Amino acid sequence: MGKKLTEDVKLYKSLKYFYHALFLGAIIDVPERSEHRMHILSDIILNLHKSVLALLKGLKDEERRSAYGADYELWERRMRELTCLRDGWSLPHYEMSGELEKLQNKVFEALDATRRLMMRYVELVKDAEKP
């Protein structure tokens, strides 16, 4: 029998990052053109990325695709879009300019893609628990 879901260290670590991203999304109620909003969006992106990487750690790309299938492809596409926006707007350095609303929408799409991939991981762990 495989590991129990309640004892899964990868899932626990992933959830910590995911919940922090959700928390940041909940407190983002600051003026739209505020520098603080840009910081918060940047931190949400970082935490979503860390959340999934906690689950994927140690897996080669083909293993990721095999285990997670379409959910991995969706997450990868959403994160690639965010990476392009981040790189184009120097988001890591908090010097964003451009369409903040577009970035915010992409962040929420990435949030959903991260959630889907995490749910797929839970399914895999549950399947491993079955006799």
Descriptive notes:
- The chain is mainly α and 131 residues long.
- It has four helices and no strands.
- It has helices spanning 9-26, 35-56, 61-89, 100-129.
- α1 (9-26) packs antiparallel against α4, α2 (35-56) packs antiparallel against α3 (61-89) and α2 (35-56) packs parallel to α4.
- The radius of gyration is 16 Å and the shape is globular.
- Mean pLDDT is 78; it is low at 91-95.
The multimeric state of the shown protein is single chain
Mean pLDDT: 78
> How does the overall form come out from the CA principal axes?
globular
Query: Per DSSP, what share of the residues sits in E-state strands of 2 or more residues?
Result: under 5%
Biggest sheet architecture = none
CATH class: Mainly Alpha
Kindly state the number of beta strands: 0
Total domain units: 1
Residue share in helix: over 70%
Low-confidence stretches: 91-95
Q: What is the count of helical runs?
A: 4
